[in-house]
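User: tokens in, sequence out, please.
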């Protein structure tokens, strides 16, 4: 069982930056996948970025629309995964959710609102 708590959302101007944090209730070494999803009003939830770890190797995936602007990273000592969001655009506005997969089970955080507006 994994509990996830997101933070760091808020209101930011276009071109600005935010860093989202996701704190897991257990060591992230035991979690196969940790990532960030987002859901904008009227749209389906989409994968933004994720870390996939298999056989001691970690793979990083990004949705095309955020490549070069967003960076997913982790601090294993703090059981935390981050999403650094730079050059934010209004279309990045959404509720952002932390996601984890351990074995066959998936877990979600409560979500944090990101609003990009002038």
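Assistant: Sequence out:
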């Amino acid at each position: 069982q994994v509990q996830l708590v997101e933070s760091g959302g808020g209101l930011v101007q276009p071109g600005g930056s935010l860093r989202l944090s996701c704190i897991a209730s257990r060591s992230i070494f035991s979690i196969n996948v940790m990532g960030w999803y987002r859901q904008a009003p009227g749209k389906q939830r989409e994968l933004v970025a994720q870390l996939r770890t298999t056989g001691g190797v970690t793979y990083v995936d990004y949705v095309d629309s955020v490549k070069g602007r967003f960076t997913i990273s982790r601090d294993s000592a703090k059981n935390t995964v981050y999403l650094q969001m730079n050059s934010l655009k209004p279309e990045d506005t959404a509720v952002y959710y932390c996601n984890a997969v351990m074995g066959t089970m998936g877990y979600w955080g409560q979500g944090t609102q990101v609003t990009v507006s002038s």
